[in-house]
Fold this sequence. Notes:
The structure is a single chain. By secondary structure, this protein is an alpha/beta fold. It contains nine helices and seven strands; from the N terminus they run αββαβααβααβαβααβ. The protein has a seven-stranded mixed sheet with strand order 2-1-3-4-6-5-7, with helices on both faces. Helix 1 (about 25-40) crosses helix 7 (about 185-200). The N and C termini lie far apart (about 35 Å).
Amino acid sequence: MAGEIVYKKPSCLLPLANGFCPGCMHALATKLIAEAIDDLDIADHVINVLPVGCSTMNSLYWKLDMITAAHGRAPAVATGIKRCRPDCMVFAYQGDGDLGSIGLSEILMAANRGEHITIFFANNATYGMTGGQMAPTTLIGQKSTTCIYGRDPDTMGYPLKMCELIKEMEAPVYVARFALNSPANIRKAKAGIKKAMENQAKGYGFSFVELLTNCPTNWHMSPIKTLDFIEQQTSKYFPLGVYVDKTPKEEK
């Protein structure tokens, strides 16, 4: 039908152009989370915990209740909010530096306690906001401002695999990793994001969704080249898939 609207901006995002770097997948990840919130019709009782990092820019775009957290402390803040307001849907969207470095203890302890919160983890293998330093997830051989010859595991250790760490715990009900580099992978990521939200809505417990994203600026690549890098490099070291799914059988 001529003039038919086939897509509209999610209602929980303000009608503004985003300010992320050109080609950055933070914008896509934000849109997918917003679409899941719209699909579930839960925007009126969602609270988003903003950490430190590029994702903090979402304070300009969300039409939701928000609260900021100190660097790495988003899971602890989300825990406090959820325990005080169990009727609310509480989620945090964290980067790899925020979650895997200064916030490593916070995310592991929240997961181990099985807090009834949802964590979305954007893994772009770099400290994007602060200039491209080596992150806990920087790949072996990948260059950054603090490992200019590439990450050397003999002196710098190996990239952290957060899904693999969290899946070993007893409490988490859903742990999954998706990539945002192709339409097929994006559809899977959206389904996983929605499932993680539904798990909290139904009181099932802790859900963790990792999203393999990019950073054209600090990877010094065109946006198109970053898609190839995710396919050929990032997703090889960080295998995609659902690592834990304890959703009741009748809900699967």
